[in-house]
Known about the structure:
mainly alpha
Amino acid sequence: MRIQDHIGKITWTMMDKGLFMVYGLVRLYQVSLMDPSEFGLFALLDAIIIAISTLTDSFALNGIVKYGSRITERAKFNALIAISHIGISSILCGIIYLSRVQLAELFSEQGIITMAEYVPIMMILTLPRLFFIKFLLRETKMREVFIANGTWFFTMIGLTVYYGSNFGSLSLENMVVISCIGTALGSLIGGLLAFSHMEFSKPDSVIFKEFITFGAYQVAWNIPATIMRHLDLYIIQFFFGTTIVGIFQSAKTLYRFFEALIDGISGLYYPALVRMHARGDRTAEHGMTSKIISFTMFGMTLIVIALSLGIGEWLVTTFLSNKYLMAYQHFSLLMLCAVILPMMITAIIYITRDHMKALLANAIISSLIGIVVSIAIGLSGHSELVALGTMSYTFTFSMIGIIYAIKQEIFAPKDFFRAIPDSLNFVHSLMHKRS
C-alpha cells in the first residue's frame, strides 16, 4: 500500500476528523458556559447515547462493511441490520427510561430522572445518522461522510454560538436541543447521500445464523470495552458525584481529539483490511497495518510532547473557566495514553479474521483491570486520580492487541519505527516529481 495512492481518501478522512476536533473546541466553550454539575448530567446522558450507539454498531451496523464485499448477499444482511439496529436501541432506551427513578436512587442524583427522559428522543434522531454513515464508509465515500458530519457539527456550532451570545450560559435542556437539531439535520443529509448505496431483500435462515453469530461476538467484546470507554463516568458518579464527573469529562473532551483521529483512521482501515483479507493479500495487510500504526504513533508522540511543553495547560486555561482548573490534572494523565492509542486499531484485525473469542478475552481482561483500578480509586477517595482507570484499560488492551497482531504476522516490532524511513522516501518522491 502506497500512501500517496490514497491521498484523496486520507485527506477527506482527516478533514472529517478535523470536524470532530473543531467541535471538541466548541464543546469546551459549551463546558465553560455550564456549571460542572450541570455538565456532569449532560456527560452522563451523552455517555448513554454513545454506549447504545456503540453496542448497536457492533452487533448490527458493522455488518454493513463486513458483508459489503458479498455483493449477492449484502441486501439480505442489510435488512437484518436495519431491524436489529432499531430493535436493540429501542429495548435499551426503554430499559433506561423505565428504570430512571431507580437509577437516580442508585447514583444519588435526582437529575438522572430528567436525563433518562431525554434518552429515547436523542436515540431516535441518532439511529438514522449512524445507519447512513456506515453505508458511506463501506463505499469509502469519505467526501460524503465529511458533508454529512459537517452538517451535523456546523448546525450544533451555530446553535451554540446563538445560545452563548444571547444568554451567556447553557443548561442541560439547551444542550439537548442543540444535539437533537444537529443530529436530525445530519441524519437527513446522510440519508440523501447514502440512498443510492442501500439495498434490501428478505434474508434466509443461513444468513440469519451467520449474522447473529458474528453480531453476538461483536457485542460481547464491546460491552466490557464500552464500560471503560464511556460508562466509567457512572463509576465516578457513584463515588464522587456530578461535579467531579463534569470536571473529568471536560478533560476527556480534550482527550477526544486523540480518539477522534484514531476513529477516523479506523473508519478507513476497516473496509480496506476486509477487502485485502478477502483476497488473501497478506503483504498488503502487513504494509497497511504497519504504516498506519507507525505513522500515527509518531504523530501522536509529537503532539504529546508539544502539549507537555505548556500547550495543554494553555488549552485548559483558555477554553475553560476557573470552575474547571482541576481538568488539566486529569488531562495530563490521559494524554499519556495517546501515544499507544494507535495500537487500539488491532481490534479490527481480530474482527476481519473472525477471531472474536480472542477479541472478547482481550476486552474482558482489559476492562476488568480498568474497572478494578477505577473502583480502587473511588474507595481511596482520590478523585484527582480517576483517569488511571482509562489509562490502565487502554494500556492493557493495546499491549494484548499488538502481541496478537505480531502473532498474525501482520505487524512486527521493527514496524514501530517504519514511519521514519517511509517519511523520508515520501518526501524524496515528491521532490523527484517536481524536478
